[in-house]
TrEMBL record:
Residues 100-189 form the Large ribosomal subunit protein bL25 beta domain. It comes from the Bacteria. HAMAP family: Ribosomal_bL25, Ribosomal_bL25_CTC. This is one of the proteins that binds to the 5S RNA in the ribosome where it forms part of the central protuberance. Keywords: Ribonucleoprotein, Ribosomal protein, RNA-binding, rRNA-binding. It holds the Pfam family Ribosomal_TL5_C. The keyword Cell membrane does not apply. Part of the 50S ribosomal subunit; part of the 5S rRNA/L5/L18/L25 subcomplex. Contacts the 5S rRNA. Binds to the 5S rRNA independently of L5 and L18. This is Large ribosomal subunit protein bL25. It comes from Methylophilus aquaticus. The keyword DNA repair does not apply. GO terms for cellular component: ribosome. Belongs to the bacterial ribosomal protein bL25 family. CTC subfamily.
Length: 202
């Protein structure tokens, strides 16, 4: 899925200028990285927010059309208004087709309702991690990673090393020797739940 966002160069900078932009329904931002200099940009808030609210916007290579020229970027940072939940500022990073990137990708948990630990074991699922940092080339970046609970028993957990990844993708934590648990099913005991022993403490 290709997500396209449009922007124009922003010549006027500063707090006052950014405030005027927001009042006019636009969002100040910046795009940086690669061999080019950082560029201050502005985007239409309504159009941007329609894309921003989708999960894929936060973990996909985006096509940023800046003054008619498209370039591949990643969302790197943003600021939301604490009350109105509007985007106050947004940062994008240019990506190279030949250099690996680090991106947080969400987990999608499947077969939770048929997991033996829930269906027959009476346990409750605990999502220990909802996303993970992956390393890959831009072309290999997945929108999400599936975690299949179809065979997970009560009292057990699924770790990073047990999750099947597409070719060319690796978990950054795992590369550094941290085989963290991602999801577990607590084992009932006497009406209360016992957290899986193999699940590390938060």
């Amino acid at each position: 899925m290709s997500i396209e966002i449009k922007a124009v160069k922003r010549d006027v900078r500063g707090t006052g200028a950014s405030r005027r932009l927001r009042r006019a329904g636009n969002v100040p931002g910046v795009v940086y990285g690669g061999e080019q200099a950082a560029v201050s940009i502005e985007l239409n808030h309504k159009d941007l927010f329609m894309q921003f609210r989708h999960e894929a916007f936060h973990a996909s290579i985006l096509s940023l059309v800046l003054d008619g020229k498209a370039e591949s970027v990643l969302l790197r940072d943003y600021q939301l208004h604490p009350v109105r939940n509007t985007i106050q500022h947004i940062d994008f990073q240019r990506v190279s087709a030949t250099e690996k990137i680090h991106v947080k990708v969400p987990f999608h948990f499947i077969n939770e309702d048929v997991a033996p630990g829930v269906k027959t074991g009476g346990g409750n699922i605990s999502h220990i991690q909802t996303e993970a940092d992956v390393s890959c080339l831009a072309k290999d970046l997945p929108e999400f990673i599936e975690v299949d609970l179809g065979t997970l028993e009560a009292g057990h957990a699924i770790h990073l090393s047990e999750i099947k990844l597409p070719k060319g993708i690796e978990f950054v934590q795992l590369v550094h020797g941290d085989d963290a648990a991602v999801v577990s099913i607590a084992k009932p005991r006497g009406g209360s739940e016992e957290v899986a022993e193999e699940t590390p403490a938060a």
